[in-house]
Design brief:
The protein is of the alpha+beta class and 221 residues long. The chain has four helices and six strands, in the order H-H-H-H-E-E-E-E-E-E.
Length: 221
């Protein structure tokens, strides 16, 4: 059984066969495509030519071996120079980091010294409050006043504690010459370790540094 719509190519009229040039024009874009190599004109323009050795300041000899040796030598010198630049930058970066740390340390020490000077100026006030708290009240009014002084003293110490300030443990603790200053020795002979018997004036530390040692009387344990 044959299909009436199918014809032998030999029987087709010549005007039904498209011209090869016209068919190729239909397949190719109207602009920007080269029919020979299939590449666009814009893509070709985007490829920049490599710089000539003369543009880089290099004069190549005509001998290929000599030219290769010259390029290798130039490459080695360029790598060495780049390594020296890198070492210089690393050294500068390390020096800057040390400078930054030194500035931060100096700033922290300046703040600490300023805080210490302020706290040292408050030590007489703390001594006065300690003396007031040692007073034995006789009336209810005196007791109320003493309670107010005690609250003020506690609040002041809590505020200073946030700056790393605090009292030194003394009475009943082993004598430590680094934080205690003995003004009276044991009244009896003994071989035991020295302990603080009485605290005469309270001492204080700030961030582990002794602001003022405690004045104490010591005795043998």
């Amino acid at each position: 059984m044959t299909n009436d719509n199918m014809h032998d190519p030999a029987e087709l009229p010549r005007d039904h066969v498209p011209d090869a040039a016209e068919a190729l024009d239909e397949l190719l874009p109207a602009e920007g495509l080269d029919a020979e190599d299939g590449t666009g004109s814009e893509a070709g323009a985007a490829l920049e030519p490599e710089p000539a050795p003369e543009e880089l300041g290099i004069e190549l000899p005509d001998d290929p071996d000599a030219a290769q040796a010259l390029l290798l030598r130039e490459l080695a010198e360029a790598r060495q120079e780049a390594g020296e630049y890198l070492e210089t930058l690393q050294r500068i970066a390390a020096d800057f980091d040390n400078f930054r740390k030194r500035v931060e340390r100096d700033q922290a020490e300046n703040v600490q010294r300023a805080s210490q000077r302020l706290i040292e100026a408050l030590l007489p006030t703390l001594d006065t409050l300690d003396a007031a708290l040692a007073f034995e009240t006789q009336t209810d009014g005196e007791a109320k006043v003493l309670d107010g002084v005690r609250g003020t003293h506690t609040q002041l110490l809590e505020t200073l504690a946030r700056e790393g300030f605090g009292p030194i443990d003394a009475a009943g603790h082993p004598f430590d010459p680094s934080v205690h200053e003995a003004v009276a020795g044991p009244t009896e002979q003994g071989d035991g370790d020295l302990v603080v018997a009485t605290e005469l004036r309270r001492g204080y530390v700030m961030r582990g540094r002794v602001i003022r040692p405690s004045l104490v009387m010591v005795e043998h344990a």
